[in-house]
Design a protein that fits this description.
Order of helices and strands: EEEEEEHEEEHEHEHEHEHEHEHEE
Radius of gyration: 22 Å
Number of domains: 3
Largest sheet: 7 strands, mixed
Number of helices: 8
Bound molecules: S-adenosylmethionine
Strand content: 25-35%
CATH topology of the largest domain: Rossmann fold
Structural class: alpha/beta
Strand order of the largest sheet: 13-12-11-14-15-17-16
CATH architecture of the largest domain: 3-Layer(aba) Sandwich
Shape: globular
Number of strands: 17
Helix content: 10-25%
CATH class of the largest domain: Alpha Beta
Amino acid sequence: MERVVDLQIDDIAFGGKGVGRAEGKAVFVPFTVEGERVAARITREKKNFAEAEVVRLEESSPERVEPQCPYFGRCGGCAYQHMSYRHQLHWKTQQVAQALQRIGKFREPPLQSIVPSPLAYGYRNRITVHVEEGVVGFFRRDVHRLIDVERCPISADAVNEELAALRARRPRDGHYTLRARSGPRIFSQTNDAVAEKLAERIASLIPPEQSLLIDAYCGAGFFAKRLLGKFARTVGLDWDIHAIAAAEAHAAANETYFAGDLAARLEAELTRADLSLTTVIVDPPATGLGADVRKILRALPPTTLLYVSCNPPTLARDLAEVGAGFTLRSVTPFDMFPQTAEIEALAHLSAIR
Ligand SMILES: C[S@@+](CC[C@H](N)C(=O)[O-])C[C@H]1O[C@@H](n2cnc3c(N)ncnc32)[C@H](O)[C@@H]1O
């Protein structure tokens, strides 16, 4: 039987859903803003929480804005187009703080102001679209079906031109990564302007006269290549042989890259390094650091550890686990993915000696 409840939204959870309470139970409602009152239909009920969809907006927030995308609400890509950009930044900051407090058990995490994206739309330099039986687009939010997408407003014009060209050639079923610039099929940063700001911030946090940089999970060496001048030697580690081949092309004399088992190589490098002159950057996938990598960083702490994360909960877990030998100096969120629920953050740690 359909159940509709009246809710007052008072929080925005990681992932972007508004949170209200009905009969003492948390109810998650997408596309709402705190302070709003909504009538919402319960779509899923569990012991400790429920999920619901807005039926009627009874009282709207001043932070509510008109989404720029006709697919918003149906497409699985964006979570925040209904919220002013300034307010998105506020909530992403809160969500990083909450992860550090609840999961990392940091009572007062040293959180810095979030670095906004110069472009709130039109920033993505690559997208992956899917094709099934003539439908070209993204997966829907609610069911595992494709939604036909003609244009993606968070993507750069050059990406949308690629999308138009792909649609015009009636592609076969499959997955297609469309890029603003052509390049190898390896990981690359998605928002150029914010990625540059992140690299600049990292450069500013490296102490003077360091001898060794280990760029772990380096991809094609995005960070290492921007920091060569600061180190006598830089080592990049990644398991993707194509990324490592791209990093090695045009490598300078003081750059070395290794494809393969990251933990073994990291341990070997740290064992023979002068740790007081060593900086390590880690930029792992959303799953965070492997348990073996956490163990090595605990046992052999470099003087500076810079952790680039795309997932606050795993960042918080890893900082709590690696943290004992380090002081957590700062955590800075970067809004690499406006309108979406994704959050990038940089943590700066210094070894306690
Ligand atoms: C978030 S990307 C970062 C890439 C790079 N730092 C950049 O800015 O372009 C994560 C990288 O980690 C690599 N990776 C993921 N798990 C790994 C593992 N267990 N060992 C080695 N590399 C791994 C992936 O191939 C990918 O290049």
